[in-house]
UniProtKB/TrEMBL annotation:
BP GO terms, sorted: mitochondrial translation
Pfam families, alphabetized: RF-1
Listed GO MF terms: translation release factor activity
Family the entry assigns: Belongs to the prokaryotic/mitochondrial release factor family.
SUPFAM superfamilies (alphabetical): Release factor
Name of the protein this chain belongs to: Prokaryotic-type class I peptide chain release factors domain-containing protein
Lineage: Eukaryota, Fungi, Dikarya, Ascomycota, Pezizomycotina
Cell compartment(s), UniProt: Mitochondrion
Disordered, as annotated region: 106-169
GO CC entries: mitochondrion
Basic and acidic residues compositional bias, start-end: 141-150
Biased composition (Basic residues): 125-140
Keywords: Mitochondrion, Transit peptide
């Protein structure tokens, strides 16, 4: 009864078997610094003095609870005039956190442009999608070529194996 429990405690710790390379194991997280380019850090939200925060009543799906409570958050960045309204969840605190992070992302995108985190993440996603599309096209092209080759071979075999009407000499 206790044999399985004892065996589990006698196993080597998972950290002893960690490879130094870029191989990801089931329960071990591999940092992106080992595998490739490091993503830019998330931008910090601007200081409280730079924006105004207003809580509004929500709208849309969610029923009576959304319509009656002031859980939507509207942030206005005073120096740039950027206005942002967030109503992702029914929780005011979660919406506040999301709104501040989104404001920081938008401000970073305005200041850094193509070097911002959102631009880098978008470029990585675009490259992955392009690679997947290219791989898919290559796969179906090879399947089509193999199918055509099999059909051509079947037609060639059909001509040779057919009995001829002329007598054999």
């Amino acid at each position: 009864m206790f044999r399985g429990l004892v065996r589990a405690t006698l196993r080597r710790p998972a950290l002893e078997s960690v490879n130094k390379g870029c191989t990801a194991h089931r329960n071990l997280a591999v940092s992106s610094a080992k595998c490739g380019k490091k993503m830019p850090d998330r931008p910090k939200p601007p200081p409280e003095e730079e924006f105004t925060e207003v809580f509004l009543k929500g709208s849309g799906p969610g029923g009576q609870k959304i319509n009656k409570t002031s859980s939507a958050v509207q942030l206005k960045h005073i120096p740039t005039g950027l206005v942002l309204k967030v109503q992702s969840t029914r929780s005011r605190t979660q919406n506040r956190k999301l709104a501040r992070q989104m404001l920081a992302d938008r401000l970073e995108q305005q200041t850094k442009g193509a070097e911002s985190r959102t631009a880098v993440v978008g470029e990585v996603k675009r490259k992955k999608k392009s690679s997947a599309t290219k791989k898919s096209k290559r796969k179906y092209r090879l399947l089509e070529e193999a199918k055509e080759a099999a059909e051509a071979e079947a037609e060639g075999d059909g001509d040779r194996g057919a009995p001829s009407s002329e007598p054999a000499s």
